[in-house]
Amino acid sequence: MKFQIEEVTVYFPYDNIYPEQYTYMVELKRALDAKGHCLLEMPTGTGKTIALLSLITSYALAKTESPIKLIYCTRTVHEMEKTLAELKFLHNYQVKHLGAAAKMLAIGLSSRKNLCVNPKVSSAENRDSVDAACRKLTASWVRSMAAENPNQPTCEFYENYDRAAGGAVLPAGVYTLEDLRAFGKEKGWCPYFLARHMVQFANVVVYSYQYLLDPKVAGIISKEMQKESVVVFDEAHNIDNVCIEALSVSVRRQTLEGAIRNISRIENEIDRFKDIDAGRLRAEYNRLVEGLALRGDLSASDAWLANPALPDDILRQAVPGNIRRAEHFLHVLRRLVQYLKVKLDTDKVEKESPVSFVASINSDAGIDQKALKFCYDRLHSLLMTLEITDTDEFLHIQTICDFATLVGTYARGFSIIIEPFDERMPLIPDPVLQLCCHDASLAIKPVFDRFQSVVITSGTLSPIDLYPRLLNFHPVVSRSFKMSLTRDCICPMVLTRGSDQLPVSTKFDMRSDPGVVRNYGKLLVEMVSIVPDGIVCFFVSYSYMDGIINSWNESGILKDIMQHKLVFIETQDVVETTLALDNYRRACDCGRGAVFFSVARGKVAEGIDFDRHYGRLVIMFGVPFQYTESKILRARLEYLRDTFQIKEGDFLTFDALIDVMNIELTDRNLNQRQAAQCVGRVIRSKADYGMMIFADKRYSRHDKRSKLPGWILSHLRDANLNLSTDMALHIAREFLRKMAQPYEKTGSTTGRKTLLSQEDVEKLGNNGAQEMLY
Amino acid sequence: MSSGQVTKRVKYKTSVKDAGTPGRLSLVKERLVFRPNNPNSASKLDMQFKYITNHRYTKEGSNKAPMLNLTSNQGASYIFEFESYEDLHICRDFVGCANLMKFGHKGVAELLHRQQKLQILELIRKFIQNNPAEMICSSVQGCCKTIDYVLHSELQKLHQQFVGGGVLTEAEFWATRKKLLEKDANRKAKQRGGLKSSVLAESKPFIDGRTNRVTFNLTPEIVREIFSEKPAVHRAYLNFVPSKMADKDFWTKYCRAEYLQRSKNIAAAIAEAAEDEELAIFLKPDDILANETRRKIRRVDPTLDMETDQGDDYSHLPDHGIFRDGSKEVAESGNELYQRTLLQDLNRHAAVVLQGTPIDEEQLKDTQTVAEALERSKQERSTASKDDESSADQERLKGISQAMTIDDLRGSNDHHLAPLWIKVLSVLTHNISSTKYNLGKKPGESLLDSLPTSVRDELLHHHISIEELMKHFWSSYPITNKYLNTKVTKLKDEMSKMDSQLQVTSLLLNSLSVRLVQALEAAMQHYDAEQQKRASKAREKPNGYS
């Protein structure tokens, strides 16, 4: 459909639109008009992504005089793929209705590991080895060597791309990673470098958060994005964590040992170079006197990860004299590693501020703050000079230098915490020195400063007023939308007892009770026999899941479950889990039906949708908890309180950890974000439906339950608050029967429209959206 | 061949005596493409089927090579020599069908009149077998419509009455009949029996309690499961039995390893494996499986591929990011080499069940047979499936992007055309058809027989047309859009016309047509009630359309 929002004609690829989507677009347009940032919350299942993409691309089409670029950030690559699929659909529609004028270039960008088409390189095991394997073939010195020596292997894809030079362009269209690879293979060009090059010309760029937020990556990828860009962070409820993680480093014993090996290797290389090409080291010295300007003119294939500190915080000046010579720099590194080793060798927890830490490095190891600060760039320059291509071997020393640079750059917003062991496992020594960032606003600040509009959106952003404080910005629009449902298509239940009326819970003293384990098992056995297609089960932790599956196996419950559905399980191996998920979907698609066992805090819960027949029922076994006594968490709370006047309670309820003050180590803290994520991905549209069972007696208590997201609570009827297995079974049967009936999609029978046609939208445009919806 | 595309190795010749250019012939929906193996060769070919006027082929059993000769409308002929008759037949059928398509409705009708019904039906059946449903719907539908139409004069009458009379559109009329064809097509494909969901090999070992003896029970079915889930064991069996050890010894070793595995006594497992290299094979991680995993992960649905996430995550370089804030679980580390967990086994088992088995029940005789049959099918699959895989992937990707769309925002395309079998209707039709059936059968009450033929025919025709009307009427409820609303109004008009016609007849034949009248009245009542409800609602709410 095609409609007007003020002066902008919006091309929306469906015949109908949800009222929420319409108002969402209206608000978004206001923010774009004001050239400001905005914060929008809208529940999952309302087609947020397509609304966003439609409005922004239509806006760009309407304002041809000042073209805007869309930078769409997703948390993960698989979400990037989903977004690109929706964009493709939208683009086809726009081209069909507008013709060539609507043509645009949209690309997804990822790492070499995901884009490389050279079979010799892409077969390498992990990301870092692919990066290194690529560098071995494409680094500038390797290529110049190959010009003289034909036996020197190079990458034909990169060479072809390089030869095509300006001619190597992507024609208009929407490119998923697979499309990029296919295009690269067809043309014989390297898709990774082609995509990186095309990023500056593309109308839409989709990549993951860190390409903007993590200075290490942003420094090489996102340097040249123009100001007239709209940046979108989708699924942004965890954005503060991404920000602080981007600036945090930890050092363990293995790191230090690896770093020592790295230093010796560098030393050997220096000696070798002294013999064959001493001039090169001297040239480097001279260059360093002039400053760090070298970063700009590196050829793309040489670029390593950039400086871990934010670009504005890096001084453009000469590298201090005491680390200019390669040998001197190595001495500094050795002393630093030695110092950290001593620090790590402690038997009590220590917490320090960066300032005092830097001061003690200066007095104990004789390294001043400025030298620390330049460590990363100095190392980078040295590795370049030494023509080292197997960069994956040097990650340890890189970590040390990242640490040094960060600690030397930032005086506030960080702390250094040394722990001799994990408090949950005090018997296993595993000392770690952590430099942790507490201030999420640091990493995101350059993004807010640089770009015209930044849109932060998600299904759950409540309390919505907390985000501007955490991220330190001023949104021009900050709105939270409710979802209007045509029918009661979600059915949450709280199950407190098994069929034998004994309570069920994962509370510490009950969780291994055979009665609870059996009751949980019986619940699932009953459910698999009545619920069609897919069922997802979440457990509080891996170890609990492992234990319970093993005991179900012993007692034959698992066999009963498998009579009805296939069983797939999330494991700690990502590859295995991905395959299990893929098979799970196939089993749901082909009608065999399956159960997926997952962990509330695992990777699957974080980002995989179980919509439609992939999740007709979600069972949450127990109350997910977070260990709240962590030193890092405490330090962060303290910082938030002192700097932003955010009270601990506020943040913790928000972050789902409740009453930390009442110390009880295990089991009591329901993570709201986690629970919302586990169950919140069942609904894809208003036509979809699903049930959720919260199986723990503690959910019947108000204080636990109230941490669940509002849209679930609003569907949780009082009658469903205290169920036993047989009652839940009955309700589930009734619900499924009800959902199978045909219903009126527009919702006109319930008094409020939940689906708008072209005509309705035009009427709205005339009357103003508000009065009709609220 | 599920993709609607056929590719075969051929030699392309301009005349029969020509030696020919080796290459590949691909037949796609509307065109045929020949690509020579030598890319520099001039004899490439790419033409649309519509230019082909005639095709001839060598008969099987003649001592000539299998060849297909296509003649274009310019009189040029293209000859392809195939490697086997099987290839030739597949391509011949494809070309034949494509030709058929070209004629369209009229052409087929004409052919039908020329008494070539059977031949055409045969062609179409083959085409349906070899092609995905969507393609059949779009292209064959046209032909089948015509055939159906010509073959069933009854249908023709109905068509004239409703489509001609403007009550139903062409699409609506045929939508309820699409199923008839599909059913036919599906019946042809041979279905293999699936695997049981439950894990057989997991069945507990039998312990007699008095001695330390542990007994495992192995049936050929369990062996099949073990071999398909653990390809390394399968390979070991093929290598060792019977050249190196006896069947029984092999399984004793295997069970010993299983026992060690399950008792979770890792130290003992390591110790025994160090002494016995065959036993170690059972305890080691499966390398064939690892390779397969690596291959499969490349073809996984990209919208859930968490491995690519890991490959893109530079914030979590080793030792970067927040390490110990209590949000991550403490992982226990163990001896990786000998730790195969139950969870992994379950995932593997479910994957194998989902994949299905290539071995039929009758082949489940003894271990040796199972092992060999499995090996054979594996080889077949690896040679045959390479080409299929990529096209299957394409299909899958298309499905994914379709799944991304939001169903209820789409206009009601095609939705209202789907035949809806609700209870009322099926009871009604059952009643009516049983009446019709019984009437003819029971000699005592041969009411129909007693009627003059013209009245009887008229009556039967009434029955069929009412059935048709009812089908459309009931499948239109609930009325969710304007389209359905107008459709129902039209149907209602037609129904009342029928009703009045029937009233006349019913004076003559009360006992039979009363049922038909009942059916009509039930529907009319429903319509009135609904209409009233709508009217009252529309008055309350200006937004609901009326």
UniProtKB/TrEMBL annotation, chain A:
EC code(s) of this entry: 5.6.2.3
Entry keyword set: 4Fe-4S, ATP-binding, DNA damage, DNA repair, DNA-binding, Helicase, Hydrolase, Iron, Iron-sulfur, Isomerase, Metal-binding, Nucleotide-binding, Nucleus
Pfam families xref list: DEAD_2, HBB, Helicase_C_2
Protein source organism: Linum tenue
Catalytic activity field: ATP + H2O = ADP + phosphate + H(+)
Coiled-coil zones: none
Enzyme class: isomerase
Lineage: Eukaryota, Viridiplantae, Streptophyta, Embryophyta, Tracheophyta
Biological process, per Gene Ontology: nucleotide-excision repair; positive regulation of mitotic recombination; transcription by RNA polymerase II
PROSITE patterns the record matches: DEAH_ATP_HELICASE, HELICASE_ATP_BIND_2
SMART domains: DEXDc2 (SM00488), HELICc2 (SM00491)
GO molecular function: 4 iron, 4 sulfur cluster binding; 5'-3' DNA helicase activity; ATP binding; damaged DNA binding; hydrolase activity, acting on acid anhydrides, in phosphorus-containing anhydrides; metal ion binding
Family affiliation: Belongs to the helicase family. RAD3/XPD subfamily.
Protein name: DNA 5'-3' helicase
TM ranges: none
Keyword Nucleotide-binding: yes
Location in or out of the cell: Nucleus
Helicase ATP-binding domain ranges (all copies): 7-285
UniProtKB/TrEMBL annotation, chain B:
Location in the cell: Nucleus
Source organism, top-level taxon: Eukaryota
Keywords, ordered alphabetically: Nucleus, Repeat, Transcription, Transcription regulation
Predominant subcellular localization, coarse grouping: nucleus
Xref: InterPro entries: BSD_dom, BSD_dom_sf, PH-like_dom_sf, Tfb1/GTF2H1, TFIIH_BTF_p62_N
An annotated GO cellular component: transcription factor TFIIH core complex
GO biological process: DNA-templated transcription; nucleotide-excision repair
Domain BSD stretches: 210-262
Renumbered residue ranges of the record's region Disordered: 374-395
Residues annotated as signal peptide: none
Homology family: Belongs to the TFB1 family.
Protein name: BSD domain-containing protein
Organism: Linum tenue
